[in-house]
Write a structure and sequence with these properties.
Strands 1-2 form a two-stranded antiparallel sheet. The longest helix has 38 residues. It is mostly helical. Helix 4 runs antiparallel to helix 6.
């Protein structure tokens, strides 16, 4: 399999994760609306709201972030301050892009390592999260190393695109034209 094909397939995976994040946002909105409705209108006499909705929406906010972050990076829609890159010589800006990608890759890999260690420690100890819902703690921890592994792969694909592109700052996600 060529790297171009691998990048294309990886892009499709990230698209699917972005759609999953969208579905979770929709589900979260519907759940919050149902909770508010049931708190204020006695549709079911014994039910006053959805007690578990706060726990679930907290988890969903985190999962939405973990699902969407690699896709956002691939789209070039992450937070980026590029005013300096536009002011300095193109070749210097290109080296700055490389520096930022290398630092980003190492940060992502560090998060994979520590996230995996934390998840394994939680799994091994049988830690539980006790709120309205009682769940194993590792259930919420496991998306972190997975998401940062995907971010690491995307950083590698970004570096490859940078190496094969024009010697200058990236043209995606610029704040000034």
């Amino acid at each position: 399999m060529t790297l171009e094909r691998a990048s294309e397939l990886f892009g499709r995976l990230l698209d699917a994760l972005a759609w999953a994040a969208c579905v979770m946002v929709f589900a979260m909105v519907m759940m919050i609306c149902a909770d508010v409705l049931l708190r204020n209108v006695a549709l079911v006499p014994t039910m006053r709201g959805l007690d578990w909705s706060n726990d679930l929406t907290e988890a969903m906010l985190y999962l939405i972030t973990m699902c969407a972050a690699p896709w956002i990076l691939r789209q070039g829609q992450h937070i980026r301050v590029d005013i300096v890159l536009r002011a300095i010589p193109k070749r210097t800006a290109w080296y700055c892009e490389w520096f930022a990608d290398v630092v980003g890759l190492f940060c992502c890999l560090a998060m994979v390592w520590y996230g995996a260690k934390m998840t394994y420690a939680s799994f091994s100890s049988g830690s539980m999260t006790v709120k309205t819902m009682v769940t194993p703690e590792w259930w919420l921890l496991v998306p972190l190393p997975i998401a940062f592994a995907l971010l690491s792969l995307e950083m590698l694909f970004r570096m490859r695109r940078l190496a094969h592109g024009e010697r200058g700052p990236r043209e995606d996600a610029v704040s000034a034209a």
